[in-house]
Amino acid sequence: MNSKPEKCYDPRDPTIKCVDAEDEFDFGCEEFKSPRARMSCGHVVTPTSLTKYCKYLLEKGESTFVCAQFGCNVEWPYEEVRKMALLTPEEKENFERILAANAFKAYFDSKLCPGCKYSVTRKVESNLSVRCQMCTATKGRTYEFCWQCLREWKGPQPRTDRCDNEGCCNDSLKTLRDCPYAIFENVKGVAKCPFIRACPTCGILVEHTGKQCKNIACRQCKVEFCFVCLKITTECRKTNTDYYGPCSSGIAPRQTSIPVWQRN
User: What superkingdom does the record give (predicted)?
Assistant: First the structure.
């Protein structure tokens, strides 16, 4: 069986800036044959490595394409990704379908009901028990499922941590509890700070390498916050204007709950 030919940039295409540099997204070291080109953020890709990286983001549930290179976090427009990845018609259809589904889930906080497989939106974001109206109607009884483990609900409610199904647990809280500490090389007075935090605005998990300043912009809600004290950057800077200095309130402890995004 013949595999599909590898995607290659055309060096004569004036709309693509080919460069003599290493592919910075060839994480598997596969040495793709295509000429290299620069994205708008300045980092170098081949169409195959870019396609693989963007597929990985979609599989993670992302609805935007953000550069993964250290200290970059530039968001690439879909039009740029489509062009630079040389997406085939089939890939474009697949990308756009998953992008729309991921964006819907992110904005409306929806998941597929395990009973009927239709999308259900959670009305009370602090309660893990969610009622599916379609399953309730078809089964002739109240049907509720766990937002966390996606199985029919067991146990008392309302609950914010877990249901009584075996193995139900909040993976994000487990990550916050068990993640290692980051060593902040350039920030004064920070000895131990968790490597992973939940964004205080939207709750998405964010990592910090410890190599840059203590503030970081969330890739989902775009709000900048201090990784050390967990205050929004503007609040943190009211008492400490130094991006590399200690916070007046000290290091915030490990988080034991996930903030819920209160969209206006």
Answer: Eukaryota
Which token pair is 192? 């131990």
Q: Domain count for the chain, please give it.
A: 3
Phi and psi of 36, rounded to 5°? -90, 155
Range of the domain at 212: 171-236
Q: CA-to-CA distance for 203 and 176, rounded, in angstroms?
A: 11
Give Cβ neighbours of residue 122 (< 8 Å, ≥ 6 apart).
Answer: 109, 110, 111, 130, 147
- Find the CATH number of the domain harbouring 24: 3.30.40
| Tens digit of each residue's pLDDT (9 = 90 or more) over 104-139 | 777 767 788 999 988 888 877 778 999 999 999 999
Q: Are residues 183 and 203 in the same domain?
A: yes
pTM, two decimal places: 0.54
State the sign of the Cα–Cα–Cα–Cα dihedral 234, 236, 241, 243: negative
Sign of CA dihedral 151, 153, 158, 159: negative
Task: State how far the Cα of 141 lies from the Cα of 44, in Å rounded to an integer.
Answer: 56
Largest CA distance in the chain: 66
Which among 173, 208, 212 has a CA at the least distance from the CA of 193? 208
Q: Which residues on neighbouring strands pair with residue 110, listed in sequence order? A: 121
Does residue 255 fall inside a structural domain?
A: no
> Rg for the chain (alpha carbons), in Å?
22
Structure tokens at 21: 């540099």
